[in-house]
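WARN retry 2 of 3 for item q-0093 after timeout on previous attempt; input resubmitted unchanged.
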Amino acid sequence: MARGSFIAWATLGGAACGEDDHVVGVDADDKEAFEAAEAACLAGSPLCDCPSHPPLAEDGRRLEKESEQAAAARCDEGACTSEIRDLP
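OK item q-0093 returned
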């Protein structure tokens, strides 16, 4: 993907049980490095069987209804953030 193509995805778990899972915005060119860092971080933290809340995006909205919402990334001048968008 060319720089300027962006993706967003949810992390696999919060830092500890009872904490929020997060959706983060990441530039497509940084996906492999992000996934490697995330895997290293999660290797030392056991995942919870069920999250206590729906994933939280950086815009403050939660992914409450996956059939009606989608996580997306918005990048501006190299800084990417995540947001929850309502589907049409």
